[in-house]
């Protein structure tokens, strides 16, 4: 104990001040993140351009596959033989995604030739993917995947919005919990 009554009270006063400063900054920083996130998402949707629906995927026969949205369904090739793989017993009308029969023939012709040694190497897969990208360019698609700037603006925007909205809610719950403890 101290001989001065102010000294014993000043410790809890300083802790209270620090607590208030932390709480203030804890609320202000996330609230500043909300406009940052909104601006980043707005920038993302301004700069975003369509990517090519022409994709190829490599798999093994018998491996389960889940068809996605028909527009996004890639052409699936066996990584050992270069043959087209189908999801299911019957081939549906959209089994090749956006590819025409002639385009499938071009891709499988290359993949089968590359797989003549029993498997598609990394270089073989790259060659097939380049052919698919060329087919996409023939249809007016220059981009096969989102750009770095598109990915960054989307991730930054989502993270900033989530942190900006969840942070003050967590601080409020923490304050309510502290008050309930007494």
Rg, please? 29 Å
Strand content: under 5%
Distance between the termini: 24 Å
- Can you give the helix content as a percent range? 55-70%
Strand order of the largest sheet: 1-2
Largest pleated sheet: 2 strands, parallel
Low-confidence stretches: 4-11
Write down the domain tally.
Answer: 2
Topology at a glance:
Blueprint: H1 5-47, E1 56-59, E2 75-78, H2 101-114, H3 122-138, H4 148-181
Parallel strand pairs: 1-2
Helix pairs in contact: 1-4, 2-3
Structure description:
- The chain is mainly α.
- It has 2 domains: 15-48 and 148-181; 56-138, no CATH class.
- 59% of the residues lie in helices and 4% in strands.
- It has helices spanning 5-47, 101-114, 122-138, 148-181; strands spanning 56-59, 75-78.
- Strands 1-2 form a two-stranded parallel sheet.
- The longest helix has 43 residues, at 5-47.
- It is elongated and about 80 Å long.
């Amino acid at each position: 104990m101290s001989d001065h009554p102010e000294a014993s009270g000043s410790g809890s006063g300083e802790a209270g001040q620090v607590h208030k400063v932390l709480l203030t900054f804890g609320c202000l920083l996330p609230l500043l993140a909300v406009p940052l996130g909104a601006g980043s998402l707005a920038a993302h949707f301004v700069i975003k351009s369509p990517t090519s629906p022409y994709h190829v995927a490599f798999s093994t026969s018998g491996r389960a596959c889940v068809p996605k949205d028909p527009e996004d369904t890639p052409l699936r090739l066996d990584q050992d033989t270069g043959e087209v793989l189908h999801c299911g017993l019957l081939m549906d009308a959209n089994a090749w995604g956006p590819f025409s029969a002639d385009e499938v023939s071009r891709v499988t012709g290359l993949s089968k030739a590359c797989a003549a040694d029993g498997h598609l190497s990394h270089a073989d897969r790259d060659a097939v993917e380049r052919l698919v990208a060329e087919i996409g360019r023939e249809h007016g698609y220059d981009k096969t995947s989102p750009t770095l700037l598109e990915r960054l603006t989307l991730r930054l925007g989502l993270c900033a919005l989530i942190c900006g909205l969840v942070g003050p809610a967590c601080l409020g719950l923490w304050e309510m919990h502290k008050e309930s403890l007494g």
